[in-house]
Structures are given as C-alpha cells and as structure tokens.
Amino acid sequence: MLKRILLGIFGTLLVIIVILFALYPQPKLQAEATNEDYCSKYGVVFDALSIEAIYSNPGDVLHAGEQFRSSDPAYLLFSLDRKRLDKPFPMERWERTLERLASWSMDKRKQQLPYRIYQGFEAQKQTFCKNVIPFIQSYLPDETDVSATVYFTALENAAAGISAFSDIAYSLSHRLVATAARIHQGSGTTTVFNLLGHELVHIGYSAYNHLSEISEEEWRKNEIVIDILHPTQNEGLATYVSYQLTDKYPIPLEWDLYLIKNKLVVKWYIKRLNNLLALAGTPAGTEAYNDAYHRIGDFGYNKKGFYIVGAHMAKTIEEQLGRDALVKTVVDGFYAFAEKYNSVVEDDMKIHYNIR
After folding, report:
1. What is the pTM of this model?
2. How far is the C-alpha of 320 from the C-alpha of 59, rounded, in Å?
3. Number of helices and strands (H, E) in the chain?
4. Is position 215 within any domain?
5. Residues 164 and 241 grouped into a single domain
6. Does pLDDT of 268 surpass 70?
7. Do residues 180 and 187 touch, judged by C-beta distance below 8 A?
8. Which of 43, 126, 152, 304 has the fewest CB atoms within 10 Å, measured from its CB?
9. 253 with 286, same domain?
C-alpha cells in the first residue's frame, strides 16, 4: 500500500513538472550590449560583494557570522523585512549551509544555482540598462531619477527582493528565483531582471511623495481611502511595467502578472477593493478598525489586490487616454489616478471611494 501511495505521489509530481516545463515561458536572452556602461549612465550600480563572499569564502563568512549579518548591506535590508514581520533569522540552517559550502571546492561552489543566476545577470545587465531603463522612464515624468544601488546575496530568504530608498537587495537563493531557474535555464536570471524593473519604477515614483502633502486633518478623515489608493497607484504602475517586460524577461512564478488581462478576475478584485474602501470612516483604535487594516493588508499584498487592480487601471488609462495622461497621474497623485481611470470605464469597473 505504501509503495502504491509513493508511486502515486511520484507520478503526480512528474506530471506537474512536465506541465511546468511545457507551459512556463522560456526566456530568449538578448545579446549583451557592449562598448558603453549603460547602467552607470542611468546611475544604477550593482554590488556583488555579498554573494561573492558567500560562495568564494564561506568559511570566513561563517567565522564572522554576526559581524557579516550586521554589516552586509544586503542582509541589513532583509533584516528590515524580518523585523516588520517579526520573522526570526534561521541561524542554525544558515550555519549548516555555510559549513557545507566551505567543505566543497571553489568550482563546485560556483556551480551552485544562486551563483549561476548571478553570473547570468552579470552577463546581460548592460542590455537591460540600455533597453529597459528608458522604457521605465517613459512612464515617469521627465528627469525622474531612478538611480539605485542593487545588492546581490544568497542564503537570506526572507523575500526575493527588498528595497529601501534607493537601495535594493536580491536573494538569489529565494524560491521565487531558484524555482524559476530550475524550470528553464535562464528563467531565474530573467526573474531578477523583471523584479528589478518593478523596483526601479517604485524608486522613480517615490520622488513624488504625495503622502507628505496630506494634512493631519485629511489623514484623520480619509486614512483608509489614502492607504488603499496610494499603494494601488504605486504597486499598480510598477506591476504594469513589469507585465510589459514579461515577453523579454519572463517571471514564471509571479502569478498576478498573468491575470491583468482577465476582465472577470479584475472585476472580482475591483469589487473587493471597493468593499474595503467602503470601510472608510471606521473609528481608529477600535476592533473594527484593526480588522479593516488586517483585511486591507491581506487583500492588497498577500492576495495581490493592489497589484492587479492598479495595473489594470494603469493599462486602461494608457490605452484609453495615452501614456502622457498616465504619467501626469504620477505628478497629480493617487486621487487623480483613480479619477482618470473612472472617467473611461463602465460603472461596474469603477473604483468607488468618498473623500470626507
């Protein structure tokens, strides 16, 4: 009986793997752009000291573990996410992995998947900067700065990537990246490129800090509306750009990108977003208020509501009114984003909110 169960499980997994290989997009990486440092031209700097240290000198990293984690820029960025989520660092597993790496030859360490993903990125980064950064800037007001320092690391898997101000870190051992690489050679690398495009939009968008312009009185009256519409524009614009990059830089496991064109799915998400917007005015400090924000966080981020609805809104504005109209909403703010979208869609697809 046990043998049959195991064979059944194995057979099911085999079918799933075959389907994944057949259906997931296989990247066709472009030839590298040469002769000019396009990344530096746009102020994008890549720092691989962390991942190089882990795979070149794992014994040294292990020996100075606490110092490494408290001083390495990539690990420091990921620690912000761990603190926010109250998610402890997996110390024992980290040390065991470093011990295993230290016991291997240099050649074997450099053949590990995270390092190979990094090498693939390194070989294609100038092409990305040459072709994609101008495309990203076309969705932002003129002269918007998207300069950033991008850190690569591994063995810190709190998230695939994280950003703070103009610093971005990617963990190339995270399952989102590593699983994509196992499905198709190069998919891990294109996943990182796509994630980077998304984050560079956020950096550009952050230059227009409309939240700082909101008075304390308006915050009190419209807090829930603001905390829904702002990330819907921010995540939506970045997701829309990321969605458009999927042909050249597929990101197989970011399922939300492949739902943006599905009107029935988007309509379902809009209905639920509107249900949350209807909670505006819930008194702060109450159980109902805490429940509202729990639902907003779960829907907006865990279920990708901000991403899917916002990307659909951005796509609709560009298709109906042109890219200039979409870019103007970056300057004018999240209310303008919703108003512009509502002006071109039928009632059952509108975003319903009230400003008090």
Report:
1. 0.88
2. 57
3. 17, 4
4. yes
5. no
6. yes
7. yes
8. 43
9. yes
